[in-house]
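In practice, a research group might receive sequence data for several interacting partners and want a quick structural hypothesis before committing to experiments. The following worked case mirrors that situation: the sequences arrive first, and a predicted assembly follows.
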Amino acid sequence: MLRFILTRVSLVIPTFLGVTFLTFLLIRLVPGDPIEVRVGERGIPPERLLELRHELGLDRPLWHQFLDYIGGVLQGDLGVSLVTRNSVFSEFVTLFPATLELAALAMLFATVVGLPAGIIAAVRRGSIFDHGVMGISLTGYSMPIFWWGLLLILFFSVGLGWTPVSGRLDLLYYVEPVTGFMLIDTLMAGEYGAFWSALHHLILPMIVLGTVPLAVVARMTRSAMLEVLGEDYIRTAKAKGLAGKRVIGMHALRNALIPVVTVIGLQVGTLLGGAILTETIFSWPGVGKWLIESINRRDYPALQGGVLLIATTVMTVNLLVDVLYGVLNPRIRHSR
Amino acid sequence: MKRILLGAGLGVAATLALAAPAQAAKTLVYCSEGSPENFNPMVNTTGTSFDVSLPVYNNLVQFEYGGTKVVPGLAEKWEVSEDGLTYTFHLRKGVKWHSNNDFKPTRDANADDVLWSFNRQWKKDHPFHKVSGGAYDYFNDMAMPDLLKSIEKVDDYTVKFTLNKVEAPFIANLAMPFAPIQSAEYAETLQKKNQIDKIDQAPIGTGPFQFVAYQKDAVIRYKAFEPYWGGKAQLDNLVFAITPDAAVRYAKLKAGECHIVPYPNPADLEAMKKDSAITLMEQEGLNVGYLAFNVTKKPFDDVRVRRALNMAIDKKAVVDAVYQGAGVPAKNPIPPTMWSYNKEIEDYPYDPERAKKLLAEAGFPDGFETDLWAMPVQRPYNPNAKRMAEMMQADLAKVGIKAKVVQYEWGEYRKRLQAGEHQMGMLGWTGDNGDPDNFLHVLLGCEAARPGGSNIAKWCYKEFDDLVVQAKRTTDIAARTKLYEQAQVIFKEEAPWLTVAHSVVHMALSKNVVDYKMDPFGIHRFYGVDLKQ
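A structural hypothesis for the assembly, expressed as tokens:
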């Protein structure tokens, strides 16, 4: 088991270096540097441009800048945002809990709804329910997030007034951030009203962000279940006279879960990607919105650091999924 | 609306920050479009960051609410010497500073603070010069380092600025957002605590609203500053709810989650006009979008060609299609909200026949081939340059001119235009200090016609230049107005540009907002605003 984990970890290192190099290079390929993008119609005298570039270290050869950056990263220093002058790491840490909270709830929503829907669809294969679930999940999968978000806002927030339009907490409340997770912070502060408000604010973004993973989970569960339900051991279990629920819950689901867990793990990437749009629509103060602004402002250190940290998160989750996979299925860990 | 009204009364019990008495507290929520870099306008250039610092600070002089006229700020009055080189400011007495957990002021604002604030931007060895990046773009752009000879403290409440040359717009420059007065005592306190970066993140000012808290990318909170020298604001609390998407801002306004919304989607304007719960305000922006003819290149060295092009393009159709109601055709290079705007000027009519005749006179009976540069990005004065270029291209083809549309990446585009590589190029301008000099001298004067300068028509016309330079050296407004009016006549005759449009800026307000005024500079100010309960 330990060897298995070590092999997986060693594969992370080249990926990590690759991500660092690519983000470093790609953002610099975008025309306009951090100084030029904030200069308007007036332009900037060439001497002043050189002076400012020098101050930011942008006048040095690219490889030099890259080595400096890598050197910093290895020592845990992601640099300072060119715009706010705060440390990139501290900005990320301030904003990331908001994204994480949203992503976790979206995933929870996708699993809690998607898993049973997939199971029932598989068990009642060919029924109206099955067709319904598959039709809806196909629609959900192809739904443009931006449009879907606005649609929900117009219907539920503006039309019915059931949910707030955007934000994380009603403006009445001011809760000093401790963990950065609004649901936890409000409870810790003993502000139950604020807790409900935070929960209320989470509903729409959670649904919007959870829609694609929900569709994926439902479809995956259905096909995995169908496959397993056709196996000999299921027939044997039924022949033994086990109750239908037990056959499905114990024998079929446990085996069908393996591909489903993998897919859930892979959805973390989708979630963080989708968070960028969802956060913009719902004015959600997370890393997605922050990254978009960093691109617009050519804030190199913020963007590099942000992408790197997100990539690290995704890699860690995938690693955990791989390990969990081994736990769920002994065949995998013993074959290596 | 219920959420905010309820909020104003009941919510305060659950709040740490909004400490005003529960029943009466009036909280105005402004759905702002983006996050600020920090809270110091000295080091920033965007309207978004100016908006968040303006409630906190005062300048020596300031623009009147909703106008471009300069009125007293921390300076009660000022005198300009005979030779126009010395400005003496008499500071207001008894002006109080805000306080926060780190800082309790022990004295009122005085000359030391004024010197401290200007020196921070001006002197490279100032202990705070490097804080927040230390790029004082506007201070440099307005040529303050060249202009300033010295700033002296005469006594605690008198400061004397001496200039190197006469510059009438100087006083308007001081009213611009980049010149706020910060507290020297606060700086000293932070220095002792080794937290100098805080000066721009937890700002202390003398302004009508005191900064309370900023939750990054989400909410900025202010409360009214009771001892404000201009009288306490009618509002008790001011909240910026950062909402980057325009459609969502509109939804929040409709749902009663905010009171004031900037930059609505042009597509939503019709619906807003019809909505009885919303007031839609509009104002011509302090800007101009134009097409410049490079007069150093053939055939645009011939004034007849330039006039012909002014008549060949159906300006009204272009403006209607491109701005969709958020723009008005321009006839002068300065916007109509600016003093000295010459109303008497008549624009060239749309007349392709006469244009053809003029072209024939100039030796181009069959037209010619040229280029037409268009910005690759949306700008405040031009929402879609590409579309505009295509429409102009079609109009020009009707008089025999074949124009090729040219585009570059924005930074590159501006550089090449300023170098004069184009034949015809689109650009525009947004006013900085509300002074006509800021358009007429900066964009059309001889000094700016050099390669790399912002006069992209490269038009250096002595008669015109003499007028605008003289106006710069004259401090009397009435005399300057005459000079600028005359300059606009020459501009129209010589036609170095096709003046295209001034954009129209919109603001949507909930009906219970009272006395909000739109600012010609496109900045959003809330002192003087009230809420009907």
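Before designing any experiment, note the following. The CA atoms of residues 209 and 278 of chain A lie 6 Å apart. The mean pLDDT of chain A is 85.
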